[in-house]
Amino acid sequence: MKPLEIVQKMMDGDAFSKWLGVEIVAIDRGSCTLSLTLNEEMVNGFNIAHGGISYSLADSALAFASNAYGQKCVSIETSISHTRPTQIGDTLTATCRELNRGKTVGVYEVTVLNQHNKTIALFKGTVFISNDVWA
């Protein structure tokens, strides 16, 4: 399967990413760019975006980038640093790039930017690469 076919298949069953309003901007083996626009349901008690929103966007970018090779991958470790707050109406773009991919483990980094190209979060993820393939 081609990377976009794999990711579309993943998105078809991904109710959470759909609920977030995630849009696929670009996809290739080992890389992915996604975006979403923040709405009023995504803010915390400080009226800024809940950290889980940028985390979830980055996590989806990791999943799509790592799975785009055709082998099924799942995260085994992730972390995020939030560097700047975001507000209702902001557009977030998460770009994932592969740092290393072996036979069973891959390491990726995701940069999340706002619409002003300011970094709002830095995410790192490690995935387990299974022998199962997307069909």
Helix and strand arrangement:
Layout: H1 3-12, H2 15-20, E1 23-28, E2 31-37, H3 51-67, E3 71-82, E4 91-101, E5 105-113, E6 119-133
Antiparallel strand pairs: 1-2, 2-4, 3-6, 4-5, 5-6
What features would you describe in this structure?
It is a single chain. By secondary structure, this protein is of the alpha+beta class. It has one domain (3-133): Thiol Ester Dehydrase, Chain A. The chain has helices at 3-12, 15-20, 51-67; strands at 23-28, 31-37, 71-82, 91-101, 105-113, 119-133. A hairpin with a 5-residue loop joins strand 5 (105-113) and strand 6 (119-133). The longest helix has 17 residues, at 51-67. The mean pLDDT is 97.
Tell me the name of the CATH class: Alpha Beta
The CATH homologous superfamily corresponds to: Hotdog Thioesterase
Principal-axes geometry comes out as: globular
The SSE order reads HHEEHEEEE
Label the structural class.
alpha+beta
Number of discrete helical segments: 3
What would the average pLDDT be, to the nearest integer? 97
Strand order of the largest sheet: 1-2-4-5-6-3
Tally of extended strands? 6
Distance between the termini: 7 Å
**Overall helicity:** 10-25%
Would you give the CATH topology? Thiol Ester Dehydrase, Chain A
List keywords for this structure.
six-stranded antiparallel sheet; Thiol Ester Dehydrase, Chain A; 3 helices; 24% helix; 44% strand; globular; alpha+beta; 135 residues
Briefly summarize what is shown.
By secondary structure, the protein is an alpha+beta fold.
